[in-house]
Amino acid sequence: MLTPAMAPASAVSAPVRTASWRQTDPRTSIVLLLATSIAVMAPGGELVLPAAVLLGLLLAVADSSWRRLLVLAAAVGVLATLAHLLPLWVAHPLVQVVGVAAAFMLRFAAIIGVAQHLLATATPGTVTTALRAARVPRVVTVPLAVMLRFIPVVVAETLAVVDAMRLHGLTGWRAMVRHPILSIERFTVPVIAATLRVGDDLTAAALLRGLGSHTRPTSRTPAQLGWPDLLWVVVAATLSVLSGTVVGGAR
Amino acid sequence: MISMADVSWTYAASAAPSLVGIDLDIVPGEVVGLCGASGSGKSSLLRLMNGLVPHFHEGTLSGTVTVAGLDVASTPLEQLGRRTGTVLQHPRRQFFTSTVVDEVSFALENFGIEPADIQDRAVQTMRQVGVLHLAEAPLAALSGGQQQRVAIAAALAHQPQLLLLDEPSSNLSHDVLASLRQVLERLAGDGVTIVVSEHRLHYLAGLLDRVIVLGSGHVGDEWSGAEFAGLPDNALVSRGLRGTPPPPRRLEPVAAIGASVEQGRPPTPAEVVTGLHLRGVRCRLRGRTVLSVEEALLPRGAVTAVRGPNGAGKTTLARVVIGLQRHTGTISLDGEVLSRLQRQRLSAIVMQDVQRQLFTDSVRAEMELAARGRSEQMGREDQTLPAQLAAFDLSELVEQHPLALSGGQQQRLVVAATQYSGARVVVFDEPSSGVDRRHLRSITAAIRRCATPETVVLLISHDEDLLHLAADRQLDLVAHPPDKE
Lengths: 251, 485
What we know:
The structure holds two protein chains of two kinds.
Chain A: H1 26-41, H2 49-62, H3 66-89, H4 93-121, H5 124-133, H6 138-167, H7 173-178, H8 180-208, H9 227-250
Chain B: E1 2-11, E2 19-26, E3 31-36, H1 42-50, H2 52-55, E4 59-67, E5 70-71, H3 77-83, E6 84-87, H4 91-94, H5 100-110, H6 115-129, H7 144-156, E7 162-166, H8 174-189, E8 193-197, E9 210-215, E10 218-224, H9 225-229, H10 233-237, E11 252-253, E12 256-257, E13 275-285, E14 288-299, E15 302-307, H11 314-321, E16 328-333, E17 336-337, H12 340-346, E18 347-350, H13 363-371, H14 381-391, H15 407-420, E19 425-429, H16 437-450, E20 456-460, H17 464-470, E21 473-476
Parallel strand pairs in B: 3-8, 3-9, 6-7, 7-8, 11-21, 15-20, 15-21, 18-19, 19-20
Antiparallel strand pairs in B: 1-2, 1-4, 4-5, 9-10, 12-14, 13-14, 13-16, 16-17
Helix pairs in contact in B: 5-6, 5-7, 6-7, 13-15, 15-16, 16-17
């Protein structure tokens, strides 16, 4: 709980964003995510895969999210080992199958690494503001803002349902293996019921306060692109070129 | 300000109307309290005033409703939203942004106010409601009372003529209710028309101009604020209304010491084998200590009220006790130290939102699932299940899907299943949030039934009515435990 101490109006920060190399405009985060997804999933995506992974790691450092950094590094390490090293050591058909699956998942891990930066730094407000500034139509901005706001709701309700399942002894591996369909049903039904209820309140409150109204919305903190955005675009481009050169040259 | 003539409303999913033949006029600047039993139509009437009925909720509307000169049925929701401010029962569920100033600015931005004016009006509103010092604070870090005030500020920033509040006092502690009243008093002084839907109206005594009682969708009694204040308790009982709560009852405190606990005494060696014994229990969340209990004994066979201001760590304590929250220190039951996993197996909780804990496709299956795995339950299910269902007025619903039940029926089912599970540790987390007097009694009876000689029962509640009726002992938690360390 925060302590109540009266503060003057000047305590509210002026609506100006302070530039820092760590901060990217949500538009930049979205562009980085889209570019990474397209590049990594396109044919020849393995050429830029190291760049995508490195970008995700650097963004985790920028967000000071050390746990994310470790998890991403570990996941990439394990998947890369399964995909590229294990088939060299063990010549077994099963290992080949696992290797192919791991190589595919490795691409997703790289994309998730970049996506996590967007989820960690963008709020519904900043995304809406940034997209409005880019003159993106309301039919895109409103659902995107609602989706971003709804993700934490789903997470919170899911955690609460898992807690309730634990107390009922429904989270054990044995139950999941013996009755997989029933286990999924017992998890999903209460999660959906609870999130729909919260979602109703959220939507009603947002509509009453003008979300999606026909008036052209304004913003207290106008969005602006700055040198940090340019920096991250240059970093991403440089990594891609280096990665393409090194991986392509090694072939 | 508000005018309703012969208004009836039926939700699309319902066969019976929620509001029938409502005739109502509310003048500008009036402060009106709406009360009535659960399901009497209070929330529907508020939705009619802000336009969610019929624009958001589907159904059939007849009659005419005018708010601030606009015909509700034919005016877009956005236009109605400009003239009304709404505060829902759970403020956290209506927040759309991440900080207080962003939330207060949200409506202003959507309504296209000039950026320079947004800043001024947001500051003005935050000052008016007393949350200016929290302007840059993340919403998730606020206490329940602070969130309530931010929700009011967010509803007022666009300067609506009408403020609607749905059960604002539920989940608020006694001291926070006083500050909520101050805020509403200030707004009433500024000429804002206020309509409050409440079960507990005592904290608004002297502020209300009028009290309207709804019953089964009809407007029943209407009293002036002074008349309402003078009503005898039996007049309120006969209408299922809550009266002035008893003064906070000082129950016998449990033996407890620690930075999070109001000054007490440690349990004696004889006591530690008579219930749940906490020793050196500390819990840190997001880098800060939120609970620190040196020693405490939560006795078997009694209902222990966990009290304290919003943010004191009551829910954290409950989660620690039932094994859902990591912590340091040990917890033993009757002298036997239990791991978190063991406590999970021995515990049950009735959550505020019971929909999170309904897993099966029928009332019977829900009860059977609750008893599954409890060895002491085996062999008695067939004999006791009908009686258990009857005790909670669920016999007729035994084959119904739990999600098809009403909110009150769902809550009774979860309480019934909790008791049937034979759990040794049971937690009730704000079970009377938003319930009327009649249901308060049935919840009280259920809590008392759970307190068998073998069971430790914890009751987290700000509701003095419920605590007065249901609790035997109390554990007082204090705010800001880290400051004491």
